[in-house]
Design goal:
By secondary structure, the protein is mainly α. The chain has 6 helices and 3 strands. The protein has a 3-stranded antiparallel β-sheet with strand order 1-3-2. The longest helix has 30 residues. The N and C termini lie far apart (about 80 Å). About 15% of the residues are buried.
């Protein structure tokens, strides 16, 4: 074995390990900011530890993506930044809560196919969610054809009631302007 071959082997091994670790760190950084769109899937590796880490990160991205469909990204980021996600401390706070319901939904849903019903509800909830988020609220849950949202938590919001009213007005205006949503 010559000196050149001896020097080339550690460089080769370093590159084989370094590149996947850089890729892993890059994807982990995207996860930290919840920038999951177009995040590349980390490849399998012959190095067991790197392969295990890559597969765990890939699974975590899938879970975060599913979670992000139902929990506002800004809320999750706020909780992560304030370390409230791990906190068990409770506080009393005045908040504004909104419940919505689609008038005549049960009868209308009975005349639609499952696909049409799902499409209608997805459009409906996307519109409501957008209005809530644009006015500083948080969607708590979807209950059938209903939505529950709140303002003033987890962080205090002095004008929470005003913002909720503005969100309701935005919803009404959106429904009035979109015939498909009436």
């Amino acid at each position: 074995v010559t000196g050149v071959q001896t020097c080339a082997l550690p460089i080769f091994i370093g590159r084989q390990i370094g590149r996947p670790i850089r890729d892993l760190a890059s994807v982990a950084k995207r996860m930290e900011t919840l920038t999951l769109q177009d995040t590349p899937t980390l490849p399998r590796s012959r190095v067991t530890e790197i392969d295990n880490a890559n597969q765990a990160i890939n699974a975590a991205i899938g879970g975060l993506g599913a979670f992000a469909r139902y929990v506002p990204r800004d809320l999750v980021l706020r909780l992560l930044r304030s370390n409230a996600a791990g906190s068990t401390e409770s506080t009393n706070r005045e908040v504004t809560i909104l419940f919505t319901d689609i008038a005549g939904y049960t009868a209308a849903a009975g005349t639609m196919s499952a696909a049409d019903t799902a499409r209608f509800l997805n459009q409906h909830f996307e519109l409501l969610n957008r209005c809530v988020e644009e006015h500083g609220g948080t969607v708590d849950k979807f209950i059938g054809d209903s939505l529950m949202a709140f303002w003033g938590a987890p962080e205090p919001l002095p004008d929470h009631a005003r913002r909720a009213v503005l969100a309701c007005r935005a919803m009404a205006a959106a429904f009035t302007s979109d015939p498909a949503m009436r």
